[in-house]
Design a protein that fits this description.
- The protein is of the alpha/beta class and 628 residues long.
- It is built from 23 helices and 21 strands.
- The strands form six sheets. A five-stranded parallel β-sheet has the order 3-2-1-4-5, with helices on both faces.
Length: 628
C-alpha cells in the first residue's frame, strides 16, 4: 500500500505515544465508550485493533471508499450512510485521515450529530503532550495561569459572512500570493484593494499599506533549543530581546500577561500599535482586572505550539501572571488538562457577524488590525469572566483527574559522548549502525544526501543507484542547519522511497557531512570560492562506516551548480577507491533543460508556486509543502 508522507508521521506518533500514555485513559475519562472510526485505511485498522482489544465498542468504520476491504467484521459505512443510520449515536468519532481534511469532515458531521469529533494526529502528538506536561507543572509551581486559546483558519467558521468574506472563502488565497517575497513588490491594484481594510486608520495611504503588509518581520531563531524572533528595528515592527513592542505598557505593574504562539499571535499584518497585545493593553489600562495593573508582552515565535510550550516552560513567571498560548488546530489539548491553573477556550467564532469592525482582511491564517481588535476584546471578556468566577486568584490545585497524571515523561536524550573530548561518540554511532546492518550479500551501496527537501532528482539518483547494487543505504544529513528540519527531511525521504525494495533510510549522525566533519557544507555561500578539505569526513566513512556495513560503492549525483559539493565529490573520487570503495557519479535528472535542485524548490516554495513545484517533487513532498 502506498502511503503519503503524513501517514508515516501519524504512525510514528502512534508508536511513540503508546510508550508514554494510554489512549483508553483519555477516552474513559470523558465517557467515550462507544467510538466510531473515520478512515478505514491502515491507521483505521491499527486504531480498531487497539480499541477493541482494550474493551471499547466500535459499531462502525466510516469511509468514502465504498470498495474498502476492511479486514475485520464490522460495518463500513459511507459518511451519508453513517449519518442516516442508527449507528450515528456514538460518544465520539476519531478521525484518522490527514489533518487538512479534518475540519471539513468535522463541520459536515456536526451538522447532523452531537458528539466529540477528534483528530487522531493531534490526539496522540507525544511531543506536544510532553511539553504541555512540563509547561503545566511549571505554571502550577509558579502560581501563574495558562490560557490556551485555539483559533484555526478563522474565516472558515464565520456565521453570516459578508460578500467580501465569501469571496475570500471561494479563493482561499495566502497573503504571500499578493507580493514577491524576494523584491517585496506588490501590484498597485492590490494595494488599492487593501486600502479597504486599513481605511479607518488616519495614516492610511498606499505607501503605509505597502510597508505594513510587506514589512521586515525578521525570522525565528533557535537559542539553546528555544525558538524566538530575532531582533528587528523598523518604523512599524520592532522586536527587542525576542519580544515585540507593545504600546502603552505601564511604567510599574503588578503582574504580566505573556503572549506566546504562531503568526496570528505575532500580528504580522499590523504595526506595533495595532497588535492584539497593544489593543489588549489599551483595554486593561482603562478597565483593570482585580484592581491590578498588568503589562502585556508579546513573545510570539511564529512557529508551532510545541515551540511555544518550550518557551513557556523556560519562562520565569511571578505568582498571578498570565500566559496566553495561541494555538491552531489543537483543540484536543483541552482533553488532557484539568486544573484551575490551565484554561482552554476556542476563539473560532470570534469573527461571527454582526460586529462593528467593518471588513476584516482574511487569508487562510492571517488577519489585519480590525480582526486583532475583535480577538483582544474577546480575550479581555474571557479574563473578566474568570475574574468574576474567582479563578484568577484562587489557590491552585494540582492536575486532579487529569489525563496527564497518567503521562510518563520521556527521559531526556543525551547523545553518546566521548569523555575525553566531550564530542559525540563515533563508537556510539557505529553501534547504532551495527543494529541496522542488512543481512544480505552482493554489492552494498550508499548515498549521503541532505534532501532539503526531497525532489524527483533525489528519487532518480536512488533508483539509478539501486540498479547497480544488491542493497542500498541512504543516509540523510542529520545536522539541523537546513531550511527544513532533519525530522521532516528524514520523513520525506522515507515517504518518497516507500515503494523501493532493498534500501534502508538512516540518519547520517555526526560523522557524515556534519559541522564536526565538513563544516564548509553549511557555509556554502561564504566559502564557495575556497578550496575545502573534506579528508576527515571521507576518512571516517572509508575506515569506519563502510567496513561496518560492507559498503563497496558510494553513489553521488553530478554537481554542476554547487562548487563546494563538487569539490567534495571530486575528493571522494580520488580517495575512496584507495579503501576499496568505488565512487559512481550519476548524471543529474533535468527538467526543462536544467538540473533539478532542492534550492530551486525552496525558491518556489517561498513564493508558493506549487504548480511549478509539483513538476519536480514526488507527491509526498508536494503534500508536505502545501500543508506546511
Amino acid at each position: 500500500m502506498k502511503l503519503r508522507s503524513e501517514y508515516f508521521e501519524i504512525i510514528y506518533k502512534w508508536l511513540r505515544y503508546k510508550d508514554h500514555i494510554d489512549l483508553s485513559v483519555l477516552l474513559r475519562n470523558f465517557s467515550f465508550n462507544n467510538v466510531a472510526i473515520y478512515g478505514g485505511g491502515i491507521l483505521g485498522e491499527l486504531l480498531y485493533e487497539y480499541l477493541v482489544t482494550v474493551g471499547f465498542s466500535v459499531p462502525c468504520v466510516i469511509d468514502r471508499n465504498v470498495k474498502l476491504n476492511f479486514p475485520y467484521d464490522v460495518d463500513v459505512l459511507t459518511p451519508n450512510l453513517f449519518l442516516d443510520s442508527g449507528q450515528n449515536r456514538v460518544d465520539a468519532v476519531i478521525v484518522t485521515v490527514l489533518d487538512y481534511h479534518y475540519y471539513r469532515i468535522r463541520e459536515a458531521l456536526l451538522k447532523n450529530i452531537d458528539c466529540a469529533i477528534l483528530p487522531l494526529s493531534n490526539l496522540i502528538d507525544i511531543d506536544v503532550l510532553q511539553e504541555l506536561f512540563t509547561a503545566t507543572k511549571h505554571i502550577e509551581e509558579s502560581k501563574a495561569h495558562l490560557f490556551i486559546m485555539n483559533i484555526f483558519q478563522p474565516i472558515q467558521h464565520i456565521k453570516e459572512p459578508s460578500p467580501m468574506e465569501l469571496n475570500h472563502l471561494a479563493h482561499r488565497t495566502f497573503y504571500s500570493n499578493y507580493y514577491d517575497p524576494f523584491t517585496g513588490e506588490v501590484s498597485s491594484n492590490f494595494i488599492k484593494f487593501l486600502l479597504n481594510y486599513y481605511d479607518d486608520l488616519p495614516q492610511c495611504s498606499e505607501e503605509y499599506v505597502k510597508e505594513v503588509f510587506c514589512t521586515n518581520w525578521g525570522l525565528p531563531i533557535n537559542k539553546n533549543g528555544i525558538i524566538s524572533l530575532q531582533d528587528v528595528r523598523s518604523k512599524y515592527f520592532n522586536v527587542i530581546d525576542g519580544v515585540r513592542h507593545t504600546f502603552g505598557t505601564p511604567k510599574t505593574h503588578d503582574n504580566t500577561i505573556h503572549f506566546f504562539g504562531h503568526c496570528l499571535c505575532g500580528d504580522i499584518l499590523a504595526e506595533d500599535c495595532n497588535t492584539i497585545e497593544s489593543k489588549l493593553q489599551h483595554i486593561l489600562n482603562a478597565s483593570p482586572l482585580l484592581g491590578k495593573t498588568y503589562r502585556v508582552l508579546n513573545h510570539a515565535n511564529w512557529r508551532t505550539s510545541l515551540d511555544s510550550l518550550k518557551q513557556i516552560s523556560q519562562k520565569e513567571f511571578s505568582a498571578g501572571d498570565i500566559a496566553i498560548l495561541m494555538t491552531y488546530n489543537e483543540e484536543t489539548l483541552e482533553y488532557y488538562v484539568s486544573s484551575n491553573a490551565v484554561h482552554f477556550h476556542d476563539l473560532s467564532n470570534v469573527f461571527d457577524r454582526p460586529h462593528d469592525m467593518g471588513e476584516i482582511f482574511f487569508d487562510q491564517h492571517h488577519i489585519n488590525h480590525r480582526g486583532y481588535q475583535l480577538i483582544a476584546n474577546r480575550i479581555y471578556e474571557i479574563l473578566a469572566e474568570h475574574q468574576d468566577r474567582g479563578t484568577l486568584d484562587k489557590a491552585h490545585k494540582a492536575m486532579q483527574n487529569a489525563v496527564l497524571n497518567n503521562f510518563t515523561p520521556r527521559k531526556t536524550f543525551t547523545p553518546p559522548m566521548n569523555v575525553t573530548t566531550s564530542k559525540p561518540s563515533l563508537e556510539g554511532y557505529l553501534s547504532f549502525l551495527e543494529g541496522e546492518k542488512a543481512d544480505c550479500s552482493g554489492v552494498i551501496g550508499a548515498i549521503v544526501m541532505n534532501c532539503n527537501p526531497f525532489t524527483l532528482g533525489h528519487q532518480f539518483l536512488i533508483e539509478e543507484a539501486k540498479k547497480q547494487c544488491s542493497f542500498l543505504y541512504v543516509f540523510v544529513v542529520e545536522e539541523d542547519r537546513s531550511f527544513f528540519p532533519f525530522s521532516d527531511r528524514l520523513m520525506l525521504v522515507k515517504a518518497g522511497t516507500s515503494e523501493f525494495d532493498n534500501i534502508k533510510v538512516l540518519p547520517g549522525g555526526h560523522f557524515m557531512i556534519s559541522t564536526l566533519t565538513f563544516p564548509e557544507y553549511f557555509e556554502k555561500e561564504s566559502v564557495k570560492d575556497v578550496k575545502i578539505d573534506a579528508s576527515k569526513d571521507i576518512k571516517i566513512f572509508a575506515e569506519k562506516i563502510a567496513p561496518m556495513l560492507n559498503i563497496t560503492k558510494r553513489f553521488v549525483g553530478e554537481e554542476p551548480l554547487d562548487p563546494i559539493t563538487n569539490q567534495y565529490n571530486q575528493a571522494m573520487i580520488e580517495y575512496l577507491p584507495r579503501y576499496g570503495v568505488a565512487v559512481v557519479e550519476i548524471p543529474r535528472m533535468r527538467f526543462g533543460g536544467y538540473p533539478i535542485s532542492a534550492s530551486f524548490v525552496r525558491e518556489l516554495f517561498k513564493s508558493r508556486s506549487f504548480n511549478e513545484i509539483s513538476k519536480i517533487v514526488p507527491p509526498s513532498t508536494l503534500d508536505y509543502l502545501e500543508n506546511r
